[in-house]
From TrEMBL:
InterPro entries, per database record: PAP (IPR039633), PAP/fibrillin_dom (IPR006843)
Pfam family, one: PAP_fibrillin
Plastid lipid-associated protein/fibrillin conserved domain span: 79-261
The name this protein goes by in its record: Plastid lipid-associated protein/fibrillin conserved domain-containing protein
Transmembrane segments: none
Organism: Hevea brasiliensis
Recorded family membership: Belongs to the PAP/fibrillin family.
Top-level taxon: Eukaryota
Subcellular location: Plastid
Primary localisation category: plastid
Keyword Transit peptide: yes
């Protein structure tokens, strides 16, 4: 009996329940650990590095999208401008609204150009802004009852939009052309005069001065809703010049509107 009591501890087999717990613990550990092991438990752990398939495969959808985005971002400024010119074709400057997909396309191109602005301090280089510009695209829209009240659904159509900037006088003149059907193709325009002053290296503050509509027949048509018309096209507020080169200018105003203009 005494001999059995002093038997060495190393010869005493570990409890079966303890072994079961250890094996279970290893299985649980392997299930969530980024290393795996051989299928035979008693072979121990085998370190195998697992690499994401998406990182090696160039045929996956995610990879294709990343490659396409990289290609877009690597386009030259002239290529982006050409794409923008094509995107704004046939949309009447966006004044009567455009599909969301087209809007996203245009805004994406605008942002790409803004990120590569060759004139980061435009108000310190106002010679780049001086002259006459033609509006290609704007997020200002005339929809629903506004369009009906202004007669822009039926007998009055919009012509070109021009902006003349005289840096020497710190003046800006907006010209909005109109065509009236049924009155011997009467043509007229709304003229809005404003002054501006620089407030930062890229921003100008604009103050409305006066407006006129010519000829008087056109004024008679708009008289009832003149405040509505002026409220749409009044440039008062601030304008951030986000991109300008020798023939293209992009700006954003304090109402979140975007303007894309081409030198005329």
């Amino acid at each position: 009996m005494a001999t059995k009591l002093v038997q060495p501890a190393s010869q005493v087999p570990p409890p079966v329940t303890r072994i079961t717990k250890i094996i279970t613990s290893h299985k649980s550990f392997l299930a969530i650990h980024p290393w795996t092991r051989n299928t035979r438990i008693d072979d121990g752990f085998m370190p195998i590095h697992i690499t994401k398939v998406a990182e090696k495969s160039s045929g996956l959808v995610g990879d294709n999208k990343e490659m396409e985005q990289h290609e877009k971002d690597s386009r030259t400024v002239s290529q982006i401008k050409e794409d923008l010119y094509q995107a704004v074709e046939g949309i009447n400057r966006g004044i009567f609204g455009i599909p969301s997909a087209k809007k996203s396309e245009i805004h994406g191109l605008v942002e790409l150009l803004e990120s590569q602005n060759p004139t980061p301090d435009p108000t310190l280089n106002l010679d780049k802004v001086d002259g006459c510009w033609k509006l290609l695209y704007s997020t200002i829209t005339i929809l629903g009852s506004k369009r009906t009240k202004l007669g822009l659904r039926d007998f009055i159509s919009l012509g070109d939009f021009f902006q003349k900037i005289d840096v020497s006088k710190a003046k800006a003149i907006n010209l909005i052309k109109f065509n009236v059907r049924g009155l011997n193709l009467l043509n007229g325009q709304l003229t809005i005069e404003a002054s501006f002053k620089t407030s930062s290296n890229s921003r100008v503050e604009i103050s409305f001065e006066n407006s006129t509509i010519t000829p008087h027949q056109l004024m008679n048509m708009f008289r009832k809703n003149y405040d509505l018309l002026l409220g749409i096209f009044n440039p008062e507020g601030w304008l951030e010049i986000t991109y300008v080169d020798d023939n293209l200018r992009i700006g954003r105003d304090d109402n979140g509107n975007i303007f894309v203009l081409e030198r005329s």
